[in-house]
Amino acid sequence: MKELILTIHIIIASFWIGGMLFMVLVLSPYIRKLPESVKAYQEVGRRYSRLGTVIGLPLLLITGILNMKSFGFSPIELLKPSTVYTQTLQIKFFFFLLTSILAVFHDFYLGERSHRSERIKKITRAVGVANLVIGIVIIYLATKLRFGG
Ligand code: HEM
User: Fold this and answer.
1) 15 in ligand 1 pocket by Cβ < 6 Å?
2) Where are the domains positioned within the chain?
3) pLDDT band at residue 86 using 50, 70 and 90 as cut-offs
4) Full-prediction pTM beyond 0.90?
């Protein structure tokens, strides 16, 4: 069972980070050239955020907590870490909260308003890129955990 939970956790993490990388490196350069680029961004963004932000992030939290239990740790350790491993996990959890807040702000506030001005468009893009960087930091922390924290 623990293998299945970690597998689900890794698949969702791949979708979350892979989706952002794909958007920034592959889709965005193409969409930017389209005449209806704003509409295309919003359509793709809405679908990705429904799957990634609304479904993916809560599932990462649930499977993450179940992973903790599989490795013999209580979720309380996120508040009061007692080992190097749970200290790293606490930092990972902090970045998880940060990325969740930024994702909701990006998808449901900025994304819907980005067509209104160049300034909002730039902020939307910057928050999206910041979230990609945070995602990569989370992956680094996950690999640190693999090596004991
Ligand atoms: C954006 C959010 C997240 C991403 C991208 C992510 C990514 C990953 C990845 C790629 C792994 C596999 C590496 C490995 O097996 O060590 C992993 C493992 C793990 N994750 Fe996450 N994760 C996220 C959120 C969380 C949260 C919120 C928690 C806890 C509340 C959590 C707890 C764990 C645990 C305990 C492991 C096992 C680590 C080990 O191997 O010792 N994750 N995560």
Assistant:
1) no
2) 2-146
3) very high
4) yes
